[in-house]
Amino acid sequence: MSKIVFVLGAGASAHCGTPLMNNFLEVAEDLFRSGEVDEVKEDFENVFDAVGKLHAAQSKAIIDTYNIEDVYAAFEMGKLLGRLPGIEGADKLERLTSSISKVIGYTLEKTTKVPNDYRINPFEAYYDFTEIIRKLIKANRSLSVITFNYDLGLEYSLYRNKLLPDYCLGDLPLKGNSVTYLKLHGSINWGRCSNEECGKIVPYREFRETESKAGLDYGILPIISRLKRLKCSSCNKTLEENPFIVPPTWNKTAFHEQIEQVWRRAANELKDAENIFVLGYSFPSTDMFFRYLFALGIDMSTILRGFYVYDIDPAVEGRFQSLLGSGVSQKFLYQGLEFEDAIKKEIIGYKDYMDLGRKYLTIPQILHIY
Ligand SMILES: [Zn+2]
Questions:
Q1: Half-sphere exposure (CA, 13 Å, Cβ side) for 74?
Q2: Each residue of 154-199: pLDDT tens digit?
Q3: Ligand 1 centre and the CA of 355: distance in Å?
Q4: CA pair distance 135, 125, nearest whole angstrom
Q5: May I ask the CATH class of domain 4-18+114-367?
Q6: How far apart are the first and last CA of the chain?
Q7: pLDDT-derived band of residue 119, with 50, 70 and 90 as boundaries?
Q8: I need a labelling partner for 83 at 20 to 30 A (CA). Which of 196, 295, 310, 362 fits?
């Protein structure tokens, strides 16, 4: 099992252009108005309409209607409880959860920028991250990546660096340099088999073709439209039309069976981890799932040597400290760096990169890889 575990949150993908949780709906609305998502226009309208009703119905803002995770969770809970303000009927509630997964999928597809050419765009943080991975593999260090993100920014850099993401879905025998890559909340390139008895998750792995507009040195990965054309690798039935993404609620039961193997694997990876690096994950107090994953997964007293948290928000330090307790504080290091800075400096000899000062230790420094 893994000795080095990287845990990534939304802050890690932000450098690719993906919106954060609290401006996601604004970005989605801009896309909708620009006409870029016309093929799923009704789904966008459906979500905006329900968010408006939810917003209006709350005398106190219990649910943050500007935050996509809160909204997605509210829709899922609405489906479970059989009601949402202004929306009646199981069909409409079902439709709404389907619509929001499309809104999330299309918004991420349209906003995640992938560089056309790394020789022109060398300062790509995910690419540099895959360089770290490559060096660790070469040095026979075992590692895994656990992420809460749905987007494909990292997949694309793995692909460009000739590394394969092993999602641990048992979907294909991997050859070459595969990287254990556990997406706890699903992914916009995962489709679920429409045959209820099968229900297998099938990932789309062709990252070759990007779409780009003239004059721009980056493109996007058109994944969702292609996912729809895939067939299940087990039973050859079509896949569901929505990407397989899991809402951040307690009630993950509807998604359980298929993704359970990914969660178990994540707990296992954490159990044997010697060094854990958390990047761009703010650990919101509502994320009970992660709290338990950590609490039950990590052996903090014996195996763990270092627990490193990189985030520009200083409040994140306290959240992790209270999770870990005082017994391991000598193993805990918080650094106020964003993802790009945590991995970039001194990896591949970027001399001109801004000097962040010696008080910070970057990942390559900690792992002694240069
Ligand atoms: Zn199937």
A1: 23
A2: 999 999 899 999 999 987 666 778 999 999 999 999 999 999 888 8
A3: 52
A4: 15
A5: alpha beta
A6: 24
A7: low
A8: 196
- What are the E-state strand segments in the chain? 4-8, 114-115, 143-147, 164-166, 178-183, 186-193, 201-203, 218-219, 239-245, 275-279, 306-310, 332-335
Q: Enumerate long-range contacts of 203-211, CB under 8 Å, 24 or more apart.
A: 203/167, 203/169, 203/171, 204/230, 205/165, 205/172, 207/152, 207/155, 207/156, 207/159, 208/159, 210/114, 210/116
pLDDT at 105 exceeding the cut of 90: yes
The single-letter DSSP state of residue 354 is P
CA of 231 to the centre of ligand 1 (A): 8
CA of 194 to the centre of ligand 1 (A): 7
DSSP state of 330: G
Spacing, Cα 307 to ligand 1 middle (Å): 40
For 364, what's the count of Cα atoms within 13 Å in the CB-facing half-sphere?
21
Report the separation in Å between the CA atom of 108 and the middle of ligand 1, taken as the mean of its atom positions.
Answer: 26
**Ligand 1 centroid from CA 197, angstroms:** 8
* 170 CA to centre of ligand 1 in angstroms: 13
pTM score over 0.70: yes
What distance in Å separates the CA atoms of residue 367 and residue 370, rounded to the nearest whole number? 9
pLDDT digits (tens, 9 = 90+) for 189-248: 999 999 988 888 999 988 888 888 777 778 899 988 788 888 998 899 999 989 999 877
Every domain of the chain and the residues it spans: 4-18+114-367, 21-111
H helix and E strand count, the chain:
13, 12
Q: Please tell me what DSSP assigns to residue 87.
A: B
- Strand partners of residue 278: 7, 309
CA atoms of 55 and 63, how far apart (whole Å): 8
- Per DSSP, the three-state class of 322 is helix
CA of 158 to the centre of ligand 1 (A): 27
Ligand 1: distance of its center to the CA of 256 in Å?
A: 16
